[in-house]
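Project standup — Tuesday

K.O.: blocked on the structure for the chain from last sprint. Re-posting the sequence here as requested.
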Amino acid sequence: MIPRRNLAVWTLGLLAVVAACASSSKQSEPQYNIIRPNEQSGATGGIPPDKEAEIQLLLQQREPSARKCYQDVLNEKHDRNFQGTITVLIGIEPSGKASQVKVVGGTLNDKGVQDCLVQTIGEFEFPQLAQAGQVQYEYRFRPAY
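H.V.: unblocked you, prediction finished:
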């Protein structure tokens, strides 16, 4: 059995060793900073989640008209390897009219499909919003045959 006084000294010593190990292991590990993008709320120009879900649903329902842009070019090319994605950023006015549609990414770099897609989406009627906002949407295109 360890006397009380020795137990206190032993405990403090053990804590010092653990603290030293913990501080030395932190120095050898790489340090990371996680930076989160500024979150937009409805008051700063973002689209509320319920309206964003409604817009995403509308874009899904209107995919056949967007697919026509791809299908027309595919019919000219007759190439099964003509496939990929196009990501668009859509600015929507409070009235529900698209103020700006632009291609912001993707793997299908065909100007004809991209231009047609921008024009087609620009004609969609989106839900009315309390204030203007933006939404991003990705189309995936591949031949059906």
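K.O.: great, moving the ticket to review. The radius of gyration is 28 Å. Residues 17-21, 29-45 have pLDDT under 50 and may be disordered.
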